[in-house]
Every structure is written in C-alpha cells, then in structure tokens.
Design goal:
4-stranded parallel sheet, 16 strands, 19% strand, 416 residues, 7-stranded parallel sheet, globular, alpha/beta
Length: 416
C-alpha cells in the first residue's frame, strides 16, 4: 500500500472519531459556511474548471460528456444550495428509532450511527464532490474522494475550499479528503483499503462500476448505470406520453436517469410513433427501431441486439413495438440496469401490474424518469442512486449513510 493511501486512511480514521462527536448545530453551521465560501470563490472554481474543460477538448471528449464536466456560475450556486439543503435536513445521527422492553426487563433501543469512513470513486461531474462531502459530513462520516482525471483541477479546488472551511470552523480538515493521484494503481489500492474504509461507493459509467465490483475487497454499494425505459401502454394518453418521452430522453441525455429505450404497445404504434418521431426530431434525437416500429417511422435505422442493453448517454433512442404489457415487462427486466422505469397508461390495473412486476429502484406511472434524484425526492443532495438491493436502493440520502447499534438499559440483570 502506498504512503499516500496509508496517510489518508490514518488521517480519516482520526477525523471520523472527531466528526462522530459533533453536535448537529456545529455540523450545520459549518455546512452553511461551506456553501457561502463556495459562492464567494466562484471565480476560482470556474478557473480550475476551465483547465479541465480545455484538457477535455484537447483530448477529444464528446460534447455531451463535456457538459457533465462543465461548471457555470449557476451550477456553482446550485452546488451551494445543495449543501444548504443538507444542512436543513434532520440529522439522523443519535436518533433512537424504536425502543422496547424484553422479558428480562431490559430496555433495548436501535440508534442511528455513522458508517465510519466512506470512500467514493467517481467520474467527470464535479458536483459529486460537494454533494458527497456534505452528505458524509452531515451523517458523521469521514470521506475520501477520488475523482476522475477529467475533473481533477475542479475537484481539487472544491476540496481545498471545503477543507479551508473546516479549518475556519475549528474542525479537522481531514474529515473531507481528496486523492490527488489519478493513477489506476492508486485507485486499485483504495479499493482494497480495508484497514480504514468501511464502505466504497463508485459513481460513474458501467466500466468504472464493473471494475470496482471486480477489484474491491472493501464492501461496495453499487450505484449503477441507467439503461431505462418508458413503456407507452395501449391505454395511454398519447399527448402526455409524448411529453414524458421527450423529457425523459432529451432534457439531459447524458445523465443516468434519462431513458434509452421506448416501448410502444402495438395498438397505438401507428398513431404514436410518427408523433414521437417528430417531437424527438426537434431535439435532434436519432431513433434505432425494431422491424415493427420501422414501419411507422420515416428516419429511423434498424436496431441491433446491442442497442437494447446500451446506455447511450447521447441523443439516441432505441424503439420497440410490443404486443402486450407482459412483453414490455419481460423486455425491461431482461435488459434494464434496475435504475428507473416508467409506464404511461390510464389503466389502473396495468399501472399496478407494472409497479409490482418491474424490477428497478424507481418505478413510475405517468411521469418522467428524470425525477429519480435525491433533490427531487426531498433528500437534498444525494450520494448516488443505488441499483442493488442490500442496505440501500434508489437515491441515497443521509439515512442511507448510517448504520445502527443497539443500546441496552438494565438495572443489574444477569443471564442465568
């Protein structure tokens, strides 16, 4: 193990002990100051971000991915607002969720406690840095952040600012740490930092997440990719369906809660597909369709088997006509990444069937998948969207970054 990772681990261990003892008011005051400091240093943040943008363009990174990387004055303000929202959320630490008396007259309670030290490996989006740091801090966890090389200067500037705020608040700056070595070797070491890390959370594309799953010996909370679908049922309001599909695909196609496949019931395909083709054409979305859908589309190209399982993160949409809701559900459960799925229907029965049978972290009736977001769900900033079933599923807020311990009150009991 390198000196860097050992040093970060030791410093985080000490910082986590201090952080776990802070009162809620101390944490909130520091978070509010952190938000203000970000806004006060917007120019510095944007200057660092410009270095990353220049490098990304020189390396030929696609425009949609550059958009994920880009910071603006408005996006920095949104990051600061996200921190303020975390400060405003109830503190889960120390909360006793339930208490009961046993037959031995012991009072047993279950209390929320921090996980300890959280490692986060992520790509591209600098807002992850402030979201993750603020959530970990509020939930009493020290955090070690390892961002991608594309956003290195942005992430470093953000962490430097947050560490300065911690110092100004008379707190240990090691409560939020940054891995300033972007080599794969150091990333692999972080995945095996069992002596210090309690959990590792990857955020990024399928390649990163798969690599972490295969390499890590530290427990992993998987935040998956978003191969998401909208199914337009035979009983759908087609104008509503059109608006939902356009929003879910084109509002911001480079994010994980955008859709990648549109499924349409054969009963409405002839009417709906020309409608949605025209609407998506105005957003520059290209269609890849199965043979039944191609009959009703003017400009689509044939879909391949690979298209059904691809997270395009681009202005591309796969389209398939299905004969029933059962075929739609079977297709979704076979190809999806268990992130977000939606049905557009006026049928109560079909809506409930979809909710019950589709296997995903978030399932919608008559709404865009773009709402799968901690902010939109009322959690404030999110640490990620978990697509696994253990510990946490869906947008992960403060409570999902905690564990529990049992506290027991007695008056001299011994077991016989």
């Amino acid at each position: 193990m390198s000196d860097l990772m050992n040093r970060l681990g030791r410093q985080s261990k000490s910082a986590a002990q201090e952080l776990g003892q802070l009162e809620t008011a101390q944490k909130n005051d520091c978070l509010l100051q952190m938000a203000q400091d970000l806004e006060n240093h917007t120019a510095d943040i944007l200057a660092a971000n410009q270095q990353d943008l220049n490098q990304a363009k020189a390396n030929g990174i696609p425009d949609l991915l550059i958009d994920r990387l880009r910071l603006t004055k408005e996006r920095v303000a949104e990051m600061a607002e996200g921190i303020r929202q975390v400060a405003a959320l109830p503190d889960p630490i120390g909360v006793v969720e339930k208490m009961w008396r046993t037959e031995d007259q012991l009072m047993v309670g279950q209390q929320r406690v921090p996980l300890g030290i959280i490692g986060i490996i992520f790509e591209s989006r600098p807002n992850v840095t402030t979201d993750a740091a603020s959530l970990c801090f509020k939930s009493g966890n020290a955090v070690i952040l390892r961002g991608g090389k594309e956003a290195f200067h942005s992430n470093q500037a953000l962490v430097n600012l947050m560490q300065q705020t911690l110092q100004d608040c008379q707190l240990n700056p090691a409560m939020i740490q940054f891995v300033n070595d972007i080599s794969h070797d150091v990333a692999n070491q972080m995945m095996r930092l069992n002596e210090y890390l309690d959990v590792l959370i990857p955020r990024g594309g399928a390649g990163l997440i798969q690599r972490v799953k295969e390499t890590a010996t530290v427990p992993v909370i998987e935040t998956g990719t978003g191969n998401n679908h909208v199914y337009v049922d035979a009983d759908a309001q087609l104008e509503m369906a059109c608006e939902i599909v356009v929003n879910a695909k084109a509002q911001r196609p480079s994010v994980c809660n955008a859709i990648e496949t549109l499924l349409v019931h054969e009963a409405v395909a002839a009417e709906f597909l020309p409608l949605i083709e025209n609407a998506l054409a105005s957003q520059n979305v290209a269609l890849r369709a199965d043979p039944l859908a191609l009959v009703h589309l003017k400009h689509a190209t044939p879909a391949t088997e690979t298209d059904w399982s691809t997270e395009f993160l681009d202005y591309l949409l796969a389209v398939k006509v299905v004969s029933s809701i059962d075929e739609a559900i079977a297709h979704i459960n076979h190809y999806n990444s268990k992130h977000s799925e939606a049905i557009v229907t006026d049928s109560y029965h079909n809506g409930q069937k979809f909710l019950k049978e589709v296997d995903a972290a978030a399932v919608y009736i008559n709404a865009s998948t773009r709402f799968t977001d901690g902010f939109k769900f009322g959690f404030g900033a999110e640490i990620g969207i978990s697509t696994q079933k253990l510990h946490a599923r869906g947008p992960m807020g403060l409570e999902h970054l905690t564990s529990s311990k049992y506290i027991i009150y007695g008056d001299g009991q011994i077991r016989t």
